[in-house]
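For the sake of transparency, this paper describes our internal protein records without simplification. The remainder of this section carries one protein's record, kept here as part of the documentation:
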Amino acid sequence: MGKQDIRPHILDSFEKMEALFESSSDNPFWFIYLNSLSEVGLRWLIKKEIKNPDYLDNVQLSTSQIIDLAVAVGAIEESEAKTFKTMNKIRNSIAHT
């Protein structure tokens, strides 16, 4: 399966995670968990697009930086980045209260 074939499957998984969150919205910890999964998915998509993917294993990036990097390498669209950034803001408000 080439990288062009993988992206729709990952995005489909994100939609399923969003549906799971909506059905469990009374528990804010679900949202933190699902946001963490989306960060893992974004890192995976980024690694599929770059020349030296193993380098990222030891690089600490904020979630916002990961989202921006995903857009920069073409792993996600800018419109999708807005959704991820909104999710991250919500996660931060839950996690840091």
User: Anything to note?
Assistant: The chain has four helices and no strands. The two ends are 42 Å apart (CA to CA).
